[in-house]
Amino acid sequence: MKPHALRLGVNIDHVATIRNARGESYPEPLRAADLALAAGADGITAHLREDRRHISDADIDALSDLCRKRGKPLNLEMAVTDEMLGIALAHKPHAACLVPERREEVTTEGGLDVVRGHNAIAPAVRALKAAGSRVSLFIEADPAQIAKAAEVEAQVIELHTGAYCEAVRSGHAAEAERLLGRLAAGARQAVQLGLEVHAGHGIDFATVRAVAAIPELAELNIGHFLIGEAIFTGLAPAIQRMRALMDAARAEAAA
């Protein structure tokens, strides 16, 4: 398969994490989103958690307005709950990514279990699609989960890259290679089922090239690393370097 252009979605959740640590009004996630779009991001991702530990309802209001004005997509990450479904249906974001969520976790751990949870997931997918949102499911690169994602008629899956990225950082080369192969196989399966394929979680400068080289991927969503790197280099240079690495990987894959 010939690689196509690869989009970059920037998750600005952890700008809000820093803001909320002191209970201040700064740094502003809205400003980070505006800077990210100016630096070349193709869209903005934000996760409105049930406990509002970082992004708030007011942030979603502001981000929705910004993305509409800039003509860029907002990807709202959300748990499969009545409250979050109501918020998403009210805002009608370009994309809604259904993710697993547990109060005790530090960040999203693992993918959504579509096989076990399809009775709740399927009606949420239908409602969001009817409202005009493009529905994505954040899942592991597991054949059964991918098949069930197609069965509930999601348009997109986002493959969880966290285990692969952690294996690279830990120096476990053989395990990293195995997990990368699993991601590539999952992406191929998804495309064959008519799904658009995204990927995200844990991606940094050291891991992005191998992931970006998977030709079936249409979008990467990257957040925590970019916000951390911005402390040292600034947000725009961090995004621009990530974009350059993604583009280089795609060019090499196409050569």
Automatic annotation (TrEMBL):
EC number in record: 2.6.99.2
Ligand binding (1-deoxy-D-xylulose 5-phosphate): D13, H14, R49, H54, T107
Pfam family, one: PdxJ
Binding-site positions, 3-amino-2-oxopropyl phosphate: N11, R22, G202, G223, H224
Cell location: Cytoplasm
Pathway assignment: Cofactor biosynthesis; pyridoxine 5'-phosphate biosynthesis; pyridoxine 5'-phosphate from D-erythrose 4-phosphate: step 5/5
Catalysed conversion reaction: 3-amino-2-oxopropyl phosphate + 1-deoxy-D-xylulose 5-phosphate = pyridoxine 5'-phosphate + phosphate + 2 H2O + H(+)
Molecular function terms from GO: pyridoxine 5'-phosphate synthase activity
Signal sequence extent: none
Active site, renumbered: H47 (proton acceptor), E77 (proton acceptor), H201 (proton donor)
Keyword annotations of the record: Cytoplasm, Pyridoxine biosynthesis, Transferase
Record site feature (Transition state stabilizer), residues: E158
Recorded superkingdom: Bacteria
InterPro entries: Aldolase_TIM, PyrdxlP_synth_PdxJ, Pyridoxine-5'_phos_synth
Enzyme class, spelled out: transferase
Oligomeric form and interacting partners: Homooctamer; tetramer of dimers.
Family affiliation: Belongs to the PNP synthase family.
Job description of the protein: Catalyzes the complicated ring closure reaction between the two acyclic compounds 1-deoxy-D-xylulose-5-phosphate (DXP) and 3-amino-2-oxopropyl phosphate (1-amino-acetone-3-phosphate or AAP) to form pyridoxine 5'-phosphate (PNP) and inorganic phosphate.
UniProt xrefs under PANTHER family: PYRIDOXINE 5'-PHOSPHATE SYNTHASE
NCBIfam families: pdxJ, PRK05265.1-2, PRK05265.1-3, PRK05265.1-5
Protein's name according to its UniProt entry: Pyridoxine 5'-phosphate synthase
Organism the protein comes from: Caulobacter ginsengisoli
Encoding gene per record: pdxJ
